[in-house]
Amino acid sequence: MMSESDAKDRDGTSAENERPKQPETKPVANPHDRFVKVALANRLVARDFLETYVSDEVKALCKLDEHQLIKQSFVDAELSEHITDILFRAPSIDPDKSSIYLYFLTEHLRKSKKLTAYRDWTYKPKIAQFHMEDTGRDEVPLIITHILYNGKETFTAPRKIADLVAVDDKDLAQKMIEGFELIDLKNIDDEILMKPIWSAVLTMALKHIDDPDPDVVAMIHKLSYHLREVERSGKGSDLLVAFLTYLFRASRVNRKEVLVQAVRTHISEQAGRQAMTLADKIKKEGRAEGRIEGRRENQKEIALRLIERGFSTQEVAEISLLTLSEIADLR
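-> structure tokens emitted (331 positions)
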């Protein structure tokens, strides 16, 4: 039987001073999810985050400081561009008992989605199966899911699968599975979010990413001490770059020079230079994307003319270079 400690090499190390490795997963297309992925792969951010948001009841059962990052995604391949998941394993305080799994899921949760609890319900069996195969234990571990939400709307979706089950007896439906813990960033005061030094960079950025220009600059100012500590530590370069990239890609600030100046003023001159480099890179990417989009629009115009003239779908595809599904959307 493989013990959980034997499986540790592929799950990560608990050493505090070792540089954390990035999860070996498919690159995340969405900037919100990319930021979460990079930030929580940093061991110091993860430690802060788990210590802050995992319930005392769960913390009492495991050695949270010895958590391991599991380098595996449990999201279906066809959904991997829309959903990001992070899984941590923390050993039980009782060496004879199974580890506890802490699952963090972001599903572009910018809006309250009715079936969130259902998706959570489908991922837990996969995690349990992974645990049993990885450790050789024929038992289901405790798996606690946290949904990281930073949407503008109030989160109103059911948090328990029982509330989605089509029966009137909800006590009976509740027997199917329990719900998830919600970290509703919009309803947590900044002062509370900012107590942990490292994870505050993650939570404050997610909470305020949709704010107008002055408020985003104010958020950077609030985090100035945290960001300087991250920079001075020498262990947070990946987090700082992820933070800056997230701001430039996802914030509503149109004048990127405003962000560059805020970074230079409230963090450091070096961070300001990084911000300027990122701004130039993203600007060039935008131009390239614009050219690509222009070509796509031209292809669609050609396809529409061919359709009007009675060409078959296959002929339209060969001439316009659009896919069959793209042509079907034009009809």
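DSSP finds 15 helices and five strands in the chain.
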